[in-house]
Write a structure and sequence with these properties.
single chain; alpha/beta; GMP Synthetase, Chain A, domain 3; 7-stranded mixed β-sheet; 20 helices
């Protein structure tokens, strides 16, 4: 049901009783009702908020009028008086843009009180909406900084949310509906993911990544494609997950003037901020000019609209979006779009990077979608030979590797992505050490792994149930808190580890050996036959990691402006079972589980041969139209 803002206001006015003071505002796709009588909208019987939401078929939030809100000092005072000491409130975060406070507590149930009595009393006194969460076992500096910045920019954010919403609820344009997808990156390649969804009403960008390659001309997606420009015509950007090949170039759009919304899950928001800041540091360390600044990243943060899994939201006049678990990394999502309505409606699903199997961290990717007519799916391991071992087999391989390498007095060094693979390998190692299968040694974490792990601790609801319960129990139950994991805090400490003859395990970034601290360990330890280089993640074509997997006996490395030839005498092992991507069998199972089967399937995010082989396999198996377009091609869907 397509409604303009004025039409929505008229419908709401017919439902709200006379004498209730309120205003209708917009927060991106949500309808905000701002009132100094919030109790009038939330009775225990006939809930007015629910009736309004059902009538206008939009998400409705009730916001207290600014006149009701206590100042920050009084908020802290009221929390100290009304929330019991045993709740152990660690932090109080204010978000004035949403008139909401977040209480981080060691015991949320004690904070809430019997039947919510404590929170009701607190809300009645301070006026603010209240969210009570468990304090994370490991505090994230990134999340702390984002919350502080959002608070400072509350006025700007409130204005932006209104601007986004006003654009969504604009009057309809005339003409027959149609939908197209344009390939602007990650088609017949891995990296720089970017898709443009265009309709007769809207333009939506999905992902904006960088390519891990030494070829500087291929790092960015196709920003100069005429379909993308001018940036003012873009209605929204949607981010599936926070790996660099999906978010690495997002701040470039803000550098060049994009000022629209960015929709993603809260964990994706935190992780992408961490990784984008690191992207600048890595570029500077390699002597390259970073493609954007920290100011561009901050501008991006200001424009992020948080979306939780399962929440349907309008992102443009004719597109409603729902994000669901993709099982790949923390907060990773498949993006389901309902484009248009009535006879002209088209249902489009971007799988994102998916893992259709329960892992140590996440539940399997969601396949419960109402109907999918066109599927855009990743093809990383879609080739005929791309069959991976299970997580249990991977754990056994890791156990055998550790026992063999440490038994010979050697060192194990693993290039890992800070997000996802690091945490999976940490849990697998923790289980092996705790079970007694392997005698514990120090496991050094070098790079952003510890901070990425802290962000995992800050978002337990995005983890699988088993891990969530362990983390909420805390102490020895939390695998990330185990004593054998130690952070490398300085270059001097790294130098000490490099020279220490004792056996150990090192998990270090970057995951494809295109830079980062792993290169230092490789330079020093690769020439030693007793050591083991262990790959646990995908190595893209053209990266140092891929060249090593191909069996090069010697590789060149740049060091302080000079080229060093590194002899490879160490043992090299690849354990595929830790991948966050589904293999060919799981990808087929994923498509099978979509009911009904999509009529069109578009393959991307894989080497050229892999994309084409996967496309052919899908066509033969499901008898549907399949495509593996090249970058810059456009497909019309309706």
């Amino acid at each position: 049901m397509r409604l303009t803002l004025s039409e929505l206001k008229k419908k709401i006015s017919k439902l709200v009783p006379k004498g209730v003071d309120y205003e209708v505002d917009v927060e991106a796709g949500s309808i905000a009702i701002v009132t100094n009588q919030p109790e009038a909208f939330s009775g225990s019987g006939d809930n007015l908020t629910v009736r309004i939401a059902k009538t206008i078929k939009r998400r409705v939030v009730i916001r207290p009028h600014p006149d009701l809100l206590a100042d920050e000092a009084n908020v802290h005072d009221a929390v100290a008086r009304l929330i019991p000491v045993e709740a152990d409130v660690r932090k109080i975060w204010l978000d004035p843009a949403l008139s909401q406070i977040t209480l981080e507590c060691d015991d949320p149930s004690a904070a809430v009180g019997p039947k919510g009595s404590n929170i009701r009393a607190l809300r009645d006194e301070i006026g603010w909406l209240i969210d009570v969460v468990r304090a994370p076992a490991i505090e994230s500096r990134t999340q702390h900084d984002i919350r502080r910045y959002r608070k400072e920019m509350a006025g700007d954010r409130k204005s932006l949310l209104r601007k986004f919403g006003t654009r969504i609820y604009r009057p309809p344009r005339p003409g027959e509906p149609w939908v197209r997808v344009t390939a602007l990156g990650s088609y017949r390649e891995v990296g720089r993911a970017m898709h443009l969804v265009t309709t007769n009403e809207s333009k939506i960008l999905v992902d904006c990544g960088a390519k891990p390659t030494t070829n500087r001309s291929e790092v960015e997606p196709f920003f100069t494609a005429p379909e993308l420009l001018p940036l003012d015509n873009l209605d929204a950007i949607v981010i599936t997950h926070a790996h660099i090949d999906h978010i690495g170039m997002l701040p470039v759009l803000f550098k060049y003037g994009y000022r629209g919304p960015v929709y993603c899950t809260p964990p994706t928001r935190d992780l992408m901020t961490l990784l984008q800041i690191d992207y600048i540091k890595v570029a500077q360390a390699e002597g390259n000019e970073p493609p954007y600044s920290k100011a561009d990243i901050q501008e991006c943060i200001k424009h992020v609209v948080d979306v939780n899994w399962g929440d349907k939201t309008d992102i443009s006049p004719d597109i409603k979006m729902t994000m669901e678990n993709a099982g790949h990394i923390l907060g990773s999502s498949s993006v389901y779009m309902q484009v248009g309505e009535g006879k002209g409606e088209h249902k489009l699903l971007f799988s994102g990077d998916i893992k259709y199997e329960k892992s140590w961290l996440f539940d399997a990717a969601t396949v419960r979608f109402p109907k999918v007519e066109t599927l855009v799916i990743e093809s990383t391991y879609g080739g005929p030979q791309d069959i991976q071992p299970t997580r249990q087999q991977a754990s056994q391989e890791l156990q055998d590797l550790i026992q063999d390498a440490l038994g010979r007095g050697g060192k194990i060094f693993c290039p890992v992505f800070a997000v996802g693979r690091s945490q999976e390998v940490m849990i697998a190692i923790d289980q092996l050490f705790k079970s007694g299968s392997v005698k514990p040694v120090t496991v050094w974490l070098d790079g952003m792994i510890s901070e990425a792990t802290a962000i995992h601790s800050s978002h337990p609801n995005f983890l699988n149930r088993d891990l969530r319960q362990k983390m909420l129990k805390g102490g020895a139950e939390n695998p990330f808190n185990s004593s054998w994991f130690k952070q490398v805090d300085s270059r001097e400490q790294r130098d000490t580890i490099l020279l220490d003859p004792s056996p150990c395990i090192v998990l270090a970034t970057s995951g494809m050996m295109t830079g980062g601290p792993i290169v230092e360990y490789f330079k020093h330890w690769a020439p030693e036959p007793g050591n083991t280089l262990c790959f646990v993640g995908y190595q893209a074509s053209g990266t140092l990691g891929r060249r090593l997997q191909q069996g090069h006996a010697q590789v060149p490395l740049m060091d302080k402006g000079q080229t060093l030839m590194i002899d490879i005498r160490c043992n090299m092992v690849t354990i595929d079972g830790f991948s966050g991507h589904s293999d060919r069998n799981q990808l087929f199972d994923y498509v099978s589980a979509l009911n009904p089967t999509p009529r069109k399937i578009i393959c991307h995010h894989g080497d050229p041969q892999t994309c084409n082989a996967f496309r052919q396999g899908l066509r033969e198996r499901f008898r549907v139209q399949t495509y593996a377009p090249a970058n810059l091609e456009t497909l019309r869907l309706t």
